[in-house]
Amino acid sequence: xxxxxxxxPFVYAGSRLECSGADLSELAxxxxxxxxxxxxxxxxxxxxxxxxxxxxxxxxxxxxxKANSSLAVMRMLGELGCGFDIVSGGELERVRRAAPEALxxxxxxxxxxxxxxxxxxxxxxxxxxxxxxxxxxxxxxERAQALGKIARIALRVNPDVFAExxxxxxxxxxxxxxxxxxERAREVYQRAVRMQGIEPAGVSVHIGSQIxxxxxxxxxxxRVRSLVEDLRGDGMDIRYVDAGGGxxxxxxxxxxxxxxxxxxxxxxxxxxxxxxxAHLLLEPGRFLVxxxxxxLTRVLYxxxxxxxxxxxxxxxxxxxxxxxxxQAHHEIVPVVKDERAVQVADIVGPxxxxxxxxxxxxxxxxxxxxDLVVLLDAGAYGMSLASHYxxxxxxxxxxxxxxRARLIRRRETLDDLLAAELI
Length: 423
Ligand SMILES: *Cc1c(COP(=O)(O)O)cnc(C)c1O
Prior knowledge:
This is Diaminopimelate decarboxylase. Residues 42-290 form the Orn/DAP/Arg decarboxylase 2 N-terminal domain. Homodimer. Pfam families: Orn_Arg_deC_N (PF02784), Orn_DAP_Arg_deC (PF00278). By secondary structure, this protein is α/β, with parallel strands linked by helices. It folds into two domains: 10-32 and 292-418, Lyase, Ornithine Decarboxylase, Chain A, domain 1 (Beta Barrel); 40-286, Alanine racemase (TIM Barrel), CATH 3.20.20. It has twelve helices and 21 strands. Strands 4, 14, 15, 16, 17, 18, 19, 20 and 21 form a nine-stranded mixed β-sheet that branches. Strands 5-6-7-8-9-11-12-13 form an eight-stranded parallel barrel, surrounded by six helices. Strands 1-2-3 form a three-stranded antiparallel β-sheet. It is globular, with a radius of gyration of 23 Å. The chain starts with 9 loop residues before the first strand and ends in a 5-residue tail after the last helix. The model has no long low-confidence stretch (mean pLDDT 95). The structure holds pyridoxal-5'-phosphate (PLP). Residues 64, 66-67, 85, 109, 206, 209-210, 244-247, 283-287, 380 line the site of pyridoxal-5'-phosphate.
């Protein structure tokens, strides 16, 4: 029940849970709870895994910042040679602060880019704009002309490929708001190539998130390849193939061998792109950071309502919204393993919503007031989706590298939280 499968850096040393050698009880004592804890070692390992599997191909890993936007995590990935996939001017500012040397390795995605965001990205000299509509293309051309710059673009095409995942994070079907239908793309490129300030340089695709089979990726890139060949035939210098992100993990107890999965993914993409002589861009988010992180929280109270047993933690849906938003599963394990009985309980937060639960009818070791527990696989879409709902400060964050933990985001104060308000 308390066993943790191998790709996670959270392991028991005897009865005590550690993150890459750092004792979680000590982290709780030093930094308080709720606390996000990330293993920098585990993040680096995943990045190197991808880099090694694609070593034979010209490629750049553009980390999807929205998965975990921590400056310290971004700096680490920048130092490992990664670029970044951003979706806002705010995320561009993060790259500027965390890894300015990587600005030339930034791709800018998103369906609603604003003029000021385009200006900032043009000024920064980013690698590629992933354009999602003709209307956006026109605004981008206007901004590039105004600034005397050339915007390298890829159209984000919608390949109409179905990827088995949660409906909120599936993006590659015609009914989704993302991209330009692939059948129309050639015509839009022909318009783009005549626009002043625009240089078509790539084709991009992103079919969704938490996709665990390789075939939809291969199918999407196969369709992209055929478009690249057509566009080159039309005389365009299309050098970049952006295969997007979305590579999934296993959140539950199922066996998961990330190295084997990456190898399979890389083999499939290399095969599809063989001989195309393109620079491959990848936009992984979750795969790099999800399993490297966990949310450490303390049991505030336990209670019995009729037949139901509840464990109330000091973390809530505002700190980690994935269970409430996507019905997501997170493994929950005690920080100190004990010979206590097994219990079945709902593990819930203090927020005033019935949707504020982390797990329902979950079997764990009996949990008592004051115990520490950890929600695993919370490194992606955890802190980056945290809010102040119920006027709660967001968690602090700690990064562990080679057994040494350091604070990378202090806990907010109520003054921080109220600072922008006017009465
Ligand atoms: C969210 C997103 C990603 C990252 O997705 P993951 O599932 O975290 O790998 C990559 N590219 C785009 C365009 C995205 O919107």
